[in-house]
Specification:
about 65% helix, single chain
């Protein structure tokens, strides 16, 4: 279960815990699930951008684009550009 990856105190109940879940895994499916649960757009963007920086070279490109799609506005555009341009990762 995803919450076991994130919080030793029990199931994730807040954005910080879900952000930690993203940092704790290299599985893009787990990341997508955790990112959907992050309510704060700033925390969500930080989680996605950080994960892409660490795992963007090895993850499935379409799955990573799906992570970018969970962001909004300029954050989504920046995420997509970072994925497209290796020097920005």
């Amino acid at each position: 279960m995803i919450w076991l990856l994130a919080c030793s105190t029990g199931p994730c109940t807040d954005d910080v815990c879900w952000h930690e879940a993203v940092e704790a895994t290299d599985d893009v499916v787990v990341v997508a699930d955790a990112v959907r649960r992050i309510e704060d757009p700033i925390v969500r963007s930080a989680a996605v951008m950080g994960w892409i920086q660490r795992h963007g070279d090895t993850a499935d490109r379409d799955a990573v684009l799906g992570l970018c799609a969970q962001l909004s506005g300029e954050d989504e555009q920046l995420c997509t550009r970072r994925l497209e341009a290796a020097h920005l990762r």
